[in-house]
Specification:
- The protein has 108 residues and is mostly helical.
- Helix content is 52%, strand content 11%.
- The protein has five helices and two strands, in the order H-H-H-H-E-E-H.
- A two-stranded antiparallel ribbon has the order 1-2.
- Helix 2 crosses helix 4.
- The longest helix is centred in the middle third of the chain and has 13 residues.
- 19% of the residues are buried.
Length: 108
């Protein structure tokens, strides 16, 4: 991942509603969710949700597929993992993190 792509993804997530939408989609991976389910789950009006989904798709954090009459939005797990990897590439000056450091998963 390059810096421009990372900035685009981070900018897309730097809004409360979009972050909530993305986290809900990650929780529903790999099946994804329809806009109507997301709207009801997060209490976000449909037109507002549509705008936020478009921004997440544009940042390559979410994909959309039509299945019959429904659109399914799914998180781009590989892109999310690439972003996490980009952010942690230089952790601890390239050395293994010291014992006692909080450990977090950096991939899904």
């Amino acid at each position: 991942m390059d810096e421009k792509t990372a900035v685009s993804a981070l900018a897309a997530l730097a809004q409360e509603a979009r972050l909530r939408v993305f986290r809900a989609l990650v929780g529903a991976a790999p099946d994804g969710l329809t806009p109507s389910v997301l709207s009801a789950m997060l209490d976000i009006p449909g037109s507002t949700l549509s705008f936020h989904l478009k921004e997440l798709v544009h940042a390559d954090l979410v994909s959309v597929e039509r299945e019959g009459r429904n659109l399914y939005y799914r998180p781009a797990i590989a892109h999310m993992n690439a972003l996490l990897g980009y952010l942690t590439d230089h952790c601890c000056q390239g050395q293994a993190c010291k014992p006692g450091s909080p450990r977090r998963r950096t991939t899904c």
